[in-house]
Write a structure and sequence with these properties.
By secondary structure, this protein is α/β, with parallel strands linked by helices. It contains 13 helices and eleven strands. It has helices at about 5-10, 15-25, 65-80, 100-110, 140-150, 160-165, 175-180, 185-200, 215-220, 235-240, 245-275, 335-345, 365-375, and strands spanning about 40-45, 85-90, 115-120, 130-135, 205-215, 225-230, 290-300, 315-320, 325-330, 350-355, 360.
Length: about 375
């Protein structure tokens, strides 16, 4: 479906149900395969860009070369240390692969995990650090900019306008499709993203956190998927770091460690448990008597296992508009909620404050008024 048509339909107040249905049909390829394996046995490693598409450019290095080297090193580590996992590359040499074909490779192979590896760039030459993305709707201009940069490769493809149903990577309104999506594997993706980012922090990479944005290459995959930005090639120091063989090995090993930990959890829980339904769940949190604030870190149509640091007091879920909302922390005042938000944002930059009264969600404005009324 043409995205511009969808926007027009919304503006004309035509029922959105048909628009959503048509959008979902356009989004998901006919050959998508839902993953049901009980152990993680196949991983697709996607080295971004390639061939006529160099990706981000530094003074000396090209993104396509850096990410291919790291991808091959990651694959070799898996082969040597986790031989039960089959590694599939979207490219293992300097060739151009369209975004939809990268996802198609993963779907046709019935992979259990998709890892897309990239390097970033910024007009601000001082920007540094690693960050990991999962599919979702951006809540910041920076996230949108990264998605636009990575999606812009489609203009190098033949007949890209028809192939991507009129999607224009340069236009913010095109990204409305990601608002309508319900990614079945979001929480597994967040789990792998969290482990990857923690692994980068352990080698003292500047921590830019876990983020959501509308990446076409993740949109069409039918398994847990993440997109890694190793660092900023536009920063002279980071370019020098990324250009070193030992650095690339270090980055590959960091991703490998995260994958190894993710596999252990995936295998022990298996996918059936990771997305099981909890019939007792409702849109009311029974232990939240009176007024309280929590931080929402994710939303998903499925109930899945999600590991949260103990300092956030675990997590709670509630159903709203047919989707499960994942909430962490708990405080009785808005001022304390803001402090908690600052801490949680280090791992989940797109998180935000929600308010509840006797277990039911209310607006933050209503909650603050109730606070004022008590004074």
């Amino acid at each position: 479906m043409n995205v511009n048509m969808l926007v027009l339909m919304k503006h004309n107040n035509i029922t959105i149900a048909s628009a959503i249905l048509l959008t979902i049909i356009a989004i998901y390829p006919a050959n998508s395969i839902a993953q049901t394996s009980k152990t993680l046995t196949k991983v697709v490693i996607d080295a971004g860009h390639g061939g006529k598409d160099p990706g981000a450019l530094g003074k000396k290095a090209k993104e396509k070369d850096i990410v291919l080297d790291v991808s091959l090193r990651l694959g070799q580590l898996i082969k040597d240390s986790l031989p039960s996992i089959e590694t599939i590359y979207t490219r293992d040499k300097d060739v151009f692969i369209p975004l939809n074909e990268r996802a198609e490779i993963a779907n046709k192979s019935a992979a259990d995990l998709f890892i897309s590896i990239h390097a970033n760039a910024s007009l601000d030459k001082t920007t540094i650090g690693a960050e990991v993305y999962v599919l979702g709707l951006h809540r910041s201009k920076d996230n949108l900019a990264v998605a636009q940069k990575e999606n812009s490769v489609i203009v190098m493809e033949d007949d890209y306008t028809n192939k991507y149903e009129g999607f224009d990577p340069t236009q913010p309104e095109s990204y409305i499709i990601f608002e309508l999506m319900q990614n079945k594997y979001l929480e597994q993706s967040i789990l792998m993203a969290s482990m990857s980012q923690e692994s980068f922090v352990n080698i003292e990479r500047a921590d830019r956190g876990i983020k959501q944005a509308g990446f076409l290459v993740l949109r069409q995959t039918s398994m847990p998927s993440i997109l890694i930005e190793l660092g900023f090639i536009s920063n002279a120091e980071e370019e020098e770091y990324l250009n070193k063989e030992e650095s690339r090995q270090e980055l590959a090993y960091s991703i490998f460690k995260a994958l190894r930990l993710y596999k252990s959890k995936y295998d022990s829980s298996n996918s059936a448990k990771m997305i099981k339904e909890n019939d007792a769940e409702s849109n009311k949190l029974g232990d939240d008597a009176g007024l309280c604030y929590r931080i929402q870190v994710a939303t998903s149509p499925e109930n899945v296992s999600l590991k949260i640091p103990d300092i956030w007091n675990g997590f709670k879920t509630m159903i709203e508009d047919g989707r499960k909302k994942y909430l962490v922390g708990k405080t009785s005042t808005y001022s304390e909620a803001k402090k908690l938000l600052t801490k949680v944002k280090k791992s989940y930059p797109d998180c935000f404050i929600v308010a509840l009264y006797d277990g039911e969600k209310i607006s933050v404005r209503q909650a603050r008024k109730k606070e004022d009324d008590k004074k």
